């Protein structure tokens, strides 16, 4: 059962963040032709954001699984997959306290540049607002789970 929950967490996260949100951005932008020529500079910047953001998120997920011995899927205090057993402060977590979310935000910013509409920006802002509440909930849990060790980490590392 534990393994099934873990797999479900990865699948749910992948579907939601990698497929569903860009699809929503595409739909609210008026479903533009995805192959439309957007210019070399904009296309390059889009690619850098999408690949860079995905890379950071994937690095964080792998790091969380191997070093933290847990799963990233924890939503508003509800454990969907097994929580990490160790506080992670190095690897991608030396960059900031939420590198997976930072990677996702960068990834989604690539779609803002690609579709170039205020509607895509609005979806990004709404997603950020929801995830900011999630981050605050998660920080409360981490303070309970890791106490002074987490407090010290917070003092030396930015949230984003």
What does this structure look like?
With 160 residues, this protein is an all-alpha fold. It has one domain: Four Helix Bundle (Hemerythrin (Met), subunit A). The chain is built from 4 helices and 2 strands. A two-stranded antiparallel sheet has the order 1-2. The protein is elongated, with a radius of gyration of 17 Å. The model has no long low-confidence stretch (mean pLDDT 88).
Topology:
Elements: H1 2-28, H2 40-66, E1 74-75, E2 78-79, H3 99-115, H4 118-156
Antiparallel strand pairs: 1-2
Keyword list:
single chain, Four Helix Bundle (Hemerythrin (Met), subunit A), 4 helices, elongated
Helical proportion, percent range? 55-70%
Annotated CATH topology: Four Helix Bundle (Hemerythrin (Met), subunit A)
Per CATH, the architecture is Up-down Bundle
Number of structurally distinct domains: 1
């Amino acid at each position: 059962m534990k393994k099934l929950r873990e797999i479900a967490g990865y699948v749910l996260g992948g579907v939601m963040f990698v497929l569903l949100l860009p699809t929503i951005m595409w739909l609210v932008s008026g479903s533009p032709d995805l192959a439309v020529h957007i210019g070399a500079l904009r296309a390059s910047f889009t690619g850098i954001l999408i690949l860079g953001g995905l890379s950071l998120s994937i690095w964080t997920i792998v790091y969380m699984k191997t070093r933290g011995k847990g799963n990233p899927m924890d939503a508003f205090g509800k454990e969907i997959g097994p929580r990490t057993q160790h506080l992670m402060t190095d690897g991608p977590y030396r960059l900031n306290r939420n590198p997976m979310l930072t990677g996702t935000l960068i990834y989604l910013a690539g779609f803002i540049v690609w579709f170039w509409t205020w509607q895509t920006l609005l979806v990004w802002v709404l997603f950020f607002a929801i995830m900011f509440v999630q981050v605050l909930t998660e920080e409360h849990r981490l303070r309970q789970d890791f106490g002074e060790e987490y407090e010290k980490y917070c003092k030396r590392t930015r949230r984003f």
